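FIELD: query
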Amino acid sequence: MKNCPYCGWSHVREGLLFCEECGQPLTTDASVTLPTRDLKSSENINGAVPTWGTTTLSKDSTIVLHIGASEPLTLPAETETILGRRDGASVRLPDLDLTPYGALEKGVSRIHASIQRKDDTLMLVDMGSSNGTHLNGQRLVAEQPRVLRDGDEIRLGKLTVFIYFKG
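FIELD: result
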């Protein structure tokens, strides 16, 4: 048992560095060097399984897009979702119309990009857009699929979209 040198509180637990009562350090000797706990690289302190950055999409996962401050959009669990904007003259229409998010003003093409689901992986493909598709700041080559990760930033022209995997 160790008493706090500031408030006198008696501590039963071993290894405490600060008083649980007043918050002051339990040692007044500045020359004392306390050891740093060695964490194994695979050890997760709080036991949670991190999802940010994962490329794996489970069967029950949903795909959520965040565009600015608007309500998040949930994508259907289809094999492909075409992103773009609608206009009256287009014959081919996108699955997800981004017109309400300023798509025309921000340079989004009518058929801009697609998000393709292949088994447990999502791919982003630029469909030959005029103003380009960027993934985390890197411009995509048209028709070349790139793997999407949870938390990625997608830029269609100048329209920024964040993608998250839920579930």
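FIELD: remark
The longest strand covers residues 159-166.
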